[in-house]
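Below is a concrete protein record.
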Amino acid sequence: MQDGTTRFPGIVGFDDTVLPELERALLAGHDLVLLGERGQGKTRLIRSLVGLLDEWTPVIEGSEPGEHPYEPVLPASIRRAAELGDDLPVAWRHRSLRYAEKRRRPTPASAT
């Protein structure tokens, strides 16, 4: 943020409204919910957040959700970390592989 480079490329018109609030929410560790009409840039904004992640991050090798070696979540990974200690195999995952998108379109009222 200090170097003044564009943090959200392709996002136009939100420099004084949405983007400062988004930055504060991210720095504070808040969850995000973006609401708005179609075509307002919600998806583009969320996709641009990937660029803010560290380029490479350590993950437990073989762990499908890509758990961090210091904070495993799954019982099998917790057990493996306890057994192997510093010998726990670690892989490095690029930020482009850490983002998955699941979208749900509202169901029309007539279909329910």
User: Anything to note?
Assistant: Helices lie at 18-28, 42-48, 75-84. The chain has a mean pLDDT of 84.
